Amino acid sequence: MPAEMEGATAPTPESPTSPKIAPDTLEQYFESIEEPFHETENGLARKNPIRPFVIGFVFCLIPLIPFLLSQLVFWLVGPRVISVRTIHLRVSSFWLWWVASFALSLLVLIVASKMLAITAEEKKSWLSPAQMRFAYCYSIVHEIRRYRTNQLNRHIDAAVMYLDKTATTLFRAAHVEMAESLYADEYWRTESVRAARTSLGSMFVGNVPKWFRLRPETETILQGCQEIIPKLRDRLKDRKDLGAVEAALFDLTAYQYTEIPELSDTQSETRFEAGTESLIRFAQSVIALPPYRSEPMAATPEEKMSRRLLLATQKLSLPFTDSNVLIAFCAWLILMSILFWGGFYIASRFVAIKMDSTIMATLIGGPIATAVTGATIPRLGKTKKQEK
Protein backbone atom coordinates (compact mmCIF):
# COMPACT_ATOMS: atom_id res chain seq x y z
CA MET A 1 0.00 0.00 0.00
CA PRO A 2 1.39 3.52 -0.76
CA ALA A 3 2.62 5.77 1.98
CA GLU A 4 -0.24 7.58 3.62
CA MET A 5 1.45 10.78 4.74
CA GLU A 6 3.87 13.09 2.98
CA GLY A 7 7.38 12.33 4.10
CA ALA A 8 6.58 8.72 5.07
CA THR A 9 9.55 6.35 5.02
CA ALA A 10 7.61 3.09 4.83
CA PRO A 11 4.60 2.06 2.71
CA THR A 12 2.20 1.77 5.61
CA PRO A 13 -0.66 4.04 6.71
CA GLU A 14 0.74 4.23 10.24
CA SER A 15 4.25 5.63 9.67
CA PRO A 16 3.76 9.35 8.96
CA THR A 17 6.13 12.22 9.68
CA SER A 18 3.62 14.95 8.77
CA PRO A 19 -0.14 15.10 9.46
CA LYS A 20 -0.94 16.05 5.85
CA ILE A 21 -2.11 13.13 3.73
CA ALA A 22 -0.37 12.70 0.40
CA PRO A 23 -2.63 13.25 -2.66
CA ASP A 24 -1.07 10.25 -4.44
CA THR A 25 -2.16 8.02 -1.57
CA LEU A 26 -5.79 8.99 -1.98
CA GLU A 27 -5.68 8.63 -5.75
CA GLN A 28 -4.03 5.21 -5.64
CA TYR A 29 -6.43 3.96 -3.00
CA PHE A 30 -9.44 5.14 -4.99
CA GLU A 31 -8.10 3.38 -8.10
CA SER A 32 -7.70 0.19 -6.10
CA ILE A 33 -11.37 0.21 -4.98
CA GLU A 34 -12.99 1.85 -8.01
CA GLU A 35 -14.31 -1.40 -9.48
CA PRO A 36 -15.83 -2.77 -6.23
CA PHE A 37 -17.12 0.75 -5.52
CA HIS A 38 -19.21 0.74 -8.69
CA GLU A 39 -20.34 -2.83 -7.97
CA THR A 40 -21.48 -1.79 -4.50
CA GLU A 41 -23.10 1.35 -5.88
CA ASN A 42 -25.05 -0.66 -8.46
CA GLY A 43 -26.08 -3.15 -5.79
CA LEU A 44 -27.37 -0.42 -3.50
CA ALA A 45 -29.19 1.26 -6.39
CA ARG A 46 -30.91 -1.92 -7.52
CA LYS A 47 -34.63 -1.61 -7.32
CA ASN A 48 -36.34 -4.24 -5.25
CA PRO A 49 -36.56 -7.17 -7.70
CA ILE A 50 -39.57 -8.64 -5.93
CA ARG A 51 -41.64 -5.45 -6.13
CA PRO A 52 -43.60 -6.64 -9.24
CA PHE A 53 -44.44 -9.87 -7.42
CA VAL A 54 -45.65 -7.92 -4.38
CA ILE A 55 -47.86 -5.78 -6.63
CA GLY A 56 -49.23 -8.92 -8.28
CA PHE A 57 -49.99 -10.45 -4.89
CA VAL A 58 -51.82 -7.30 -3.76
CA PHE A 59 -53.95 -7.19 -6.92
CA CYS A 60 -54.81 -10.85 -6.43
CA LEU A 61 -55.79 -10.09 -2.85
CA ILE A 62 -57.96 -7.10 -3.79
CA PRO A 63 -59.10 -9.03 -6.10
CA LEU A 64 -58.69 -7.32 -9.47
CA ILE A 65 -56.64 -9.97 -11.28
CA PRO A 66 -59.01 -12.86 -10.33
CA PHE A 67 -61.95 -10.89 -11.69
CA LEU A 68 -60.20 -10.15 -14.99
CA LEU A 69 -59.12 -13.79 -15.31
CA SER A 70 -62.63 -15.08 -14.67
CA GLN A 71 -64.04 -12.72 -17.31
CA LEU A 72 -61.36 -13.74 -19.81
CA VAL A 73 -62.00 -17.45 -19.26
CA PHE A 74 -65.76 -16.94 -19.58
CA TRP A 75 -65.19 -15.10 -22.87
CA LEU A 76 -62.97 -17.94 -24.15
CA VAL A 77 -64.80 -21.08 -23.02
CA GLY A 78 -68.19 -19.89 -21.79
CA PRO A 79 -69.98 -21.41 -18.75
CA ARG A 80 -68.12 -24.71 -18.94
CA VAL A 81 -68.19 -26.91 -15.83
CA ILE A 82 -65.51 -29.33 -14.61
CA SER A 83 -66.64 -32.29 -12.50
CA VAL A 84 -64.33 -34.18 -10.16
CA ARG A 85 -66.37 -36.94 -8.53
CA THR A 86 -69.03 -35.06 -6.56
CA ILE A 87 -67.39 -31.65 -7.00
CA HIS A 88 -68.61 -29.45 -9.84
CA LEU A 89 -66.68 -26.30 -10.66
CA ARG A 90 -67.45 -23.69 -13.27
CA VAL A 91 -64.18 -22.88 -15.12
CA SER A 92 -64.94 -19.17 -15.18
CA SER A 93 -65.90 -19.04 -11.49
CA PHE A 94 -64.73 -15.83 -9.86
CA TRP A 95 -64.12 -17.56 -6.51
CA LEU A 96 -62.11 -20.32 -8.15
CA TRP A 97 -59.79 -17.81 -9.76
CA TRP A 98 -59.59 -15.73 -6.57
CA VAL A 99 -58.37 -18.69 -4.51
CA ALA A 100 -56.07 -19.94 -7.31
CA SER A 101 -54.59 -16.50 -7.99
CA PHE A 102 -54.04 -15.79 -4.32
CA ALA A 103 -52.30 -19.12 -3.69
CA LEU A 104 -50.18 -18.91 -6.85
CA SER A 105 -49.15 -15.27 -6.34
CA LEU A 106 -48.21 -15.98 -2.72
CA LEU A 107 -46.10 -18.97 -3.77
CA VAL A 108 -44.38 -16.97 -6.52
CA LEU A 109 -43.72 -14.11 -4.08
CA ILE A 110 -42.08 -16.46 -1.57
CA VAL A 111 -39.92 -18.12 -4.24
CA ALA A 112 -38.94 -14.78 -5.77
CA SER A 113 -37.97 -13.33 -2.39
CA LYS A 114 -35.68 -16.31 -1.84
CA MET A 115 -34.11 -16.37 -5.31
CA LEU A 116 -33.98 -12.71 -6.39
CA ALA A 117 -33.19 -10.89 -3.16
CA ILE A 118 -29.64 -9.67 -2.60
CA THR A 119 -27.86 -12.44 -0.71
CA ALA A 120 -25.34 -12.18 2.09
CA GLU A 121 -22.71 -13.67 -0.22
CA GLU A 122 -23.15 -10.81 -2.67
CA LYS A 123 -22.83 -8.25 0.12
CA LYS A 124 -19.52 -9.79 1.23
CA SER A 125 -17.89 -8.43 -1.93
CA TRP A 126 -19.26 -4.93 -1.32
CA LEU A 127 -17.25 -2.12 0.21
CA SER A 128 -17.80 -1.17 3.82
CA PRO A 129 -19.77 2.01 4.70
CA ALA A 130 -16.53 3.84 5.55
CA GLN A 131 -15.02 2.91 2.19
CA MET A 132 -18.20 4.01 0.40
CA ARG A 133 -18.10 7.39 2.16
CA PHE A 134 -14.54 7.87 0.96
CA ALA A 135 -15.37 6.69 -2.57
CA TYR A 136 -18.42 8.94 -2.88
CA CYS A 137 -16.39 11.96 -1.79
CA TYR A 138 -13.34 11.23 -3.93
CA SER A 139 -15.59 10.56 -6.94
CA ILE A 140 -16.61 14.24 -6.87
CA VAL A 141 -12.96 15.30 -7.16
CA HIS A 142 -12.41 12.66 -9.83
CA GLU A 143 -15.36 13.81 -11.94
CA ILE A 144 -14.35 17.49 -11.65
CA ARG A 145 -10.89 16.62 -12.99
CA ARG A 146 -12.43 14.67 -15.84
CA TYR A 147 -14.64 17.62 -16.72
CA ARG A 148 -11.63 19.92 -16.84
CA THR A 149 -9.99 17.53 -19.27
CA ASN A 150 -12.81 16.86 -21.74
CA GLN A 151 -15.51 19.47 -20.85
CA LEU A 152 -18.25 16.80 -20.95
CA ASN A 153 -21.28 17.84 -18.90
CA ARG A 154 -21.98 14.28 -17.78
CA HIS A 155 -19.03 14.49 -15.39
CA ILE A 156 -20.56 17.50 -13.63
CA ASP A 157 -23.90 15.68 -13.42
CA ALA A 158 -22.12 12.71 -11.85
CA ALA A 159 -20.25 15.00 -9.45
CA VAL A 160 -23.52 16.60 -8.30
CA MET A 161 -25.02 13.15 -7.71
CA TYR A 162 -21.99 12.07 -5.63
CA LEU A 163 -22.11 15.35 -3.68
CA ASP A 164 -25.70 14.60 -2.68
CA LYS A 165 -24.69 11.12 -1.54
CA THR A 166 -21.68 12.47 0.34
CA ALA A 167 -23.82 14.99 2.18
CA THR A 168 -26.19 12.26 3.38
CA THR A 169 -23.44 9.84 4.49
CA LEU A 170 -20.97 12.20 6.12
CA PHE A 171 -20.42 11.10 9.69
CA ARG A 172 -21.06 8.21 12.04
CA ALA A 173 -22.12 10.20 15.08
CA ALA A 174 -24.84 10.80 17.62
CA HIS A 175 -27.43 13.55 17.30
CA VAL A 176 -26.29 17.07 18.08
CA GLU A 177 -29.10 17.20 20.63
CA MET A 178 -27.16 14.65 22.68
CA ALA A 179 -24.11 16.91 22.61
CA GLU A 180 -26.12 19.91 23.77
CA SER A 181 -27.46 17.93 26.71
CA LEU A 182 -24.02 16.60 27.67
CA TYR A 183 -22.02 19.80 27.18
CA ALA A 184 -23.79 22.78 28.77
CA ASP A 185 -21.17 25.15 27.37
CA GLU A 186 -21.41 28.46 25.53
CA TYR A 187 -20.28 26.81 22.29
CA TRP A 188 -23.44 24.71 22.19
CA ARG A 189 -25.64 27.72 22.78
CA THR A 190 -24.49 29.54 19.66
CA GLU A 191 -26.80 30.09 16.74
CA SER A 192 -24.76 27.98 14.32
CA VAL A 193 -24.87 24.87 16.51
CA ARG A 194 -28.60 25.24 17.05
CA ALA A 195 -28.98 25.40 13.28
CA ALA A 196 -26.80 22.30 13.00
CA ARG A 197 -29.22 20.44 15.26
CA THR A 198 -31.93 20.47 12.61
CA SER A 199 -29.81 20.16 9.49
CA LEU A 200 -27.32 17.55 10.65
CA GLY A 201 -29.40 15.50 13.05
CA SER A 202 -30.61 13.12 10.33
CA MET A 203 -27.01 12.51 9.18
CA PHE A 204 -25.76 11.24 12.54
CA VAL A 205 -26.61 7.57 12.89
CA GLY A 206 -23.89 5.88 14.92
CA ASN A 207 -21.29 6.61 17.57
CA VAL A 208 -19.99 10.10 18.33
CA PRO A 209 -17.00 10.83 16.02
CA LYS A 210 -13.65 11.48 17.65
CA TRP A 211 -13.50 15.09 16.47
CA PHE A 212 -16.76 15.91 18.30
CA ARG A 213 -15.15 17.46 21.37
CA LEU A 214 -15.64 20.51 23.58
CA ARG A 215 -13.42 22.75 21.46
CA PRO A 216 -14.00 25.77 19.20
CA GLU A 217 -13.02 23.84 16.06
CA THR A 218 -15.97 21.49 16.62
CA GLU A 219 -18.33 24.39 15.98
CA THR A 220 -16.41 25.20 12.79
CA ILE A 221 -16.72 21.61 11.58
CA LEU A 222 -20.45 21.54 12.25
CA GLN A 223 -21.00 24.81 10.42
CA GLY A 224 -18.93 23.62 7.46
CA CYS A 225 -20.95 20.42 7.24
CA GLN A 226 -24.16 22.40 7.47
CA GLU A 227 -23.15 24.56 4.50
CA ILE A 228 -21.79 21.87 2.18
CA ILE A 229 -24.97 21.62 0.09
CA PRO A 230 -26.07 25.30 0.18
CA LYS A 231 -22.63 26.55 -0.88
CA LEU A 232 -21.20 23.77 -3.05
CA ARG A 233 -24.08 22.15 -4.94
CA ASP A 234 -25.15 25.07 -7.12
CA ARG A 235 -21.53 26.08 -7.69
CA LEU A 236 -20.78 22.59 -8.92
CA LYS A 237 -23.91 22.46 -11.06
CA ASP A 238 -23.09 25.84 -12.68
CA ARG A 239 -19.36 25.06 -13.10
CA LYS A 240 -18.42 27.96 -10.80
CA ASP A 241 -15.34 28.06 -8.54
CA LEU A 242 -14.51 24.45 -9.38
CA GLY A 243 -11.00 24.87 -7.97
CA ALA A 244 -12.32 25.91 -4.56
CA VAL A 245 -14.94 23.16 -4.57
CA GLU A 246 -12.34 20.54 -5.49
CA ALA A 247 -9.91 21.72 -2.81
CA ALA A 248 -12.54 21.67 -0.08
CA LEU A 249 -13.80 18.21 -1.01
CA PHE A 250 -10.26 16.88 -1.31
CA ASP A 251 -9.70 17.76 2.36
CA LEU A 252 -12.98 16.02 3.24
CA THR A 253 -11.81 12.98 1.27
CA ALA A 254 -8.58 12.94 3.26
CA TYR A 255 -10.62 12.85 6.48
CA GLN A 256 -12.79 10.03 5.13
CA TYR A 257 -9.61 8.09 4.30
CA THR A 258 -8.42 8.19 7.90
CA GLU A 259 -11.79 6.79 9.02
CA ILE A 260 -11.50 3.55 7.01
CA PRO A 261 -10.93 0.78 9.57
CA GLU A 262 -9.78 -1.69 6.88
CA LEU A 263 -6.57 0.29 6.37
CA SER A 264 -5.22 0.54 9.89
CA ASP A 265 -6.02 1.26 13.51
CA THR A 266 -8.36 4.25 13.45
CA GLN A 267 -7.60 4.89 17.12
CA SER A 268 -4.05 5.99 16.23
CA GLU A 269 -3.48 9.51 17.61
CA THR A 270 -1.36 10.54 14.63
CA ARG A 271 -3.99 9.28 12.23
CA PHE A 272 -6.71 11.07 14.22
CA GLU A 273 -4.82 14.37 14.15
CA ALA A 274 -4.26 14.05 10.39
CA GLY A 275 -7.96 13.42 9.78
CA THR A 276 -9.07 16.20 12.11
CA GLU A 277 -6.73 18.70 10.47
CA SER A 278 -8.11 17.81 7.03
CA LEU A 279 -11.67 18.07 8.31
CA ILE A 280 -11.05 21.51 9.81
CA ARG A 281 -9.47 22.71 6.56
CA PHE A 282 -12.53 21.46 4.68
CA ALA A 283 -14.91 23.25 7.05
CA GLN A 284 -12.92 26.50 6.90
CA SER A 285 -12.85 26.37 3.10
CA VAL A 286 -16.61 25.91 2.88
CA ILE A 287 -17.32 28.65 5.43
CA ALA A 288 -15.02 31.08 3.59
CA LEU A 289 -17.02 30.71 0.36
CA PRO A 290 -19.67 33.39 -0.14
CA PRO A 291 -23.28 32.23 -0.54
CA TYR A 292 -24.22 31.18 -4.06
CA ARG A 293 -27.49 30.10 -5.63
CA SER A 294 -28.35 29.27 -9.23
CA GLU A 295 -30.85 31.35 -11.11
CA PRO A 296 -34.18 29.51 -10.87
CA MET A 297 -35.54 28.33 -14.21
CA ALA A 298 -39.19 28.87 -15.04
CA ALA A 299 -41.06 25.60 -14.60
CA THR A 300 -42.99 24.23 -17.56
CA PRO A 301 -46.70 23.40 -17.19
CA GLU A 302 -45.80 19.69 -17.19
CA GLU A 303 -43.30 20.21 -14.36
CA LYS A 304 -45.83 22.22 -12.35
CA MET A 305 -48.40 19.45 -12.78
CA SER A 306 -45.92 16.72 -11.81
CA ARG A 307 -44.91 18.70 -8.70
CA ARG A 308 -48.52 19.10 -7.69
CA LEU A 309 -49.16 15.40 -8.16
CA LEU A 310 -46.02 14.53 -6.19
CA LEU A 311 -47.01 16.88 -3.38
CA ALA A 312 -50.56 15.49 -3.31
CA THR A 313 -49.21 11.92 -3.24
CA GLN A 314 -46.88 12.77 -0.36
CA LYS A 315 -49.72 14.32 1.61
CA LEU A 316 -51.98 11.32 0.98
CA SER A 317 -49.25 8.88 2.07
CA LEU A 318 -48.54 10.64 5.39
CA PRO A 319 -51.21 8.76 7.42
CA PHE A 320 -49.87 5.39 6.20
CA THR A 321 -46.36 6.15 7.50
CA ASP A 322 -47.34 8.05 10.63
CA SER A 323 -45.20 7.39 13.71
CA ASN A 324 -48.38 6.59 15.63
CA VAL A 325 -49.13 2.95 14.79
CA LEU A 326 -52.85 3.41 15.52
CA ILE A 327 -53.15 6.18 12.92
CA ALA A 328 -51.25 4.10 10.37
CA PHE A 329 -53.44 1.07 11.08
CA CYS A 330 -56.66 3.08 10.67
CA ALA A 331 -55.43 4.56 7.37
CA TRP A 332 -54.57 1.12 6.01
CA LEU A 333 -57.84 -0.33 7.29
CA ILE A 334 -59.92 2.32 5.51
CA LEU A 335 -58.00 1.86 2.25
CA MET A 336 -58.16 -1.94 2.33
CA SER A 337 -61.85 -1.91 3.24
CA ILE A 338 -62.58 0.27 0.22
CA LEU A 339 -60.57 -2.03 -2.04
CA PHE A 340 -62.03 -5.28 -0.70
CA TRP A 341 -65.64 -4.15 -0.59
CA GLY A 342 -65.28 -2.19 -3.82
CA GLY A 343 -63.84 -5.24 -5.57
CA PHE A 344 -66.64 -7.40 -4.19
CA TYR A 345 -69.28 -4.90 -5.35
CA ILE A 346 -67.83 -4.70 -8.87
CA ALA A 347 -67.60 -8.48 -9.09
CA SER A 348 -71.19 -8.89 -7.90
CA ARG A 349 -72.38 -6.67 -10.73
CA PHE A 350 -71.06 -9.13 -13.31
CA VAL A 351 -71.18 -12.47 -11.49
CA ALA A 352 -74.00 -13.92 -9.41
CA ILE A 353 -72.51 -14.17 -5.91
CA LYS A 354 -74.24 -15.80 -2.99
CA MET A 355 -73.18 -14.29 0.30
CA ASP A 356 -72.03 -16.87 2.85
CA SER A 357 -69.86 -17.03 5.96
CA THR A 358 -66.64 -17.55 3.98
CA ILE A 359 -67.15 -14.46 1.86
CA MET A 360 -68.15 -12.39 4.86
CA ALA A 361 -65.07 -13.52 6.82
CA THR A 362 -62.86 -12.61 3.86
CA LEU A 363 -64.42 -9.18 3.47
CA ILE A 364 -64.05 -8.44 7.19
CA GLY A 365 -60.82 -10.24 8.06
CA GLY A 366 -58.96 -9.41 4.83
CA PRO A 367 -58.79 -5.62 5.40
CA ILE A 368 -57.87 -6.10 9.06
CA ALA A 369 -55.04 -8.56 8.30
CA THR A 370 -53.70 -6.38 5.48
CA ALA A 371 -53.89 -3.25 7.65
CA VAL A 372 -51.95 -4.94 10.45
CA THR A 373 -49.30 -6.03 7.95
CA GLY A 374 -49.04 -2.59 6.35
CA ALA A 375 -48.73 -0.81 9.69
CA THR A 376 -46.20 -3.16 11.32
CA ILE A 377 -43.83 -4.39 8.58
CA PRO A 378 -42.14 -0.99 7.95
CA ARG A 379 -41.60 -0.55 11.69
CA LEU A 380 -40.01 -4.00 11.98
CA GLY A 381 -37.58 -3.03 9.22
CA LYS A 382 -36.67 0.21 11.02
CA THR A 383 -36.18 -1.69 14.30
CA LYS A 384 -33.79 -4.15 12.64
CA LYS A 385 -31.77 -1.30 11.10
CA GLN A 386 -31.49 0.43 14.47
CA GLU A 387 -30.33 -2.79 16.13
CA LYS A 388 -27.61 -3.17 13.52
Provide tags for this entry:
disordered C terminus; 388 residues; mainly alpha
Mean pLDDT: 75
Q: How many strands in all?
A: 2
Rg, alpha carbons? 28 Å
Helix content: 55-70%
Number of helices: 16
**Shape by Cα distribution:** elongated
- What profile does the largest beta sheet have? 2 strands, antiparallel
- Assign the structural class, choosing from mainly alpha, mainly beta, alpha/beta, alpha+beta, or little secondary structure: mainly alpha
Estimate the strand proportion. under 5%
The ordered string of helix (H) and strand (E) elements is: HHHEEHHHHHHHHHHHHH
Biggest sheet, strands in spatial order? Answer: 1-2
N-end to C-end Cα span? 31 Å
Poorly predicted runs: 1-19, 172-206, 384-388
Could you characterize the architecture of this molecule?
The chain is mainly alpha-helical. Among the domains are: 128-288, no CATH class; 303-388, no CATH class. The chain contains 16 helices and 2 strands. Mean pLDDT is 75; it is low at 1-19, 172-206 and 384-388.
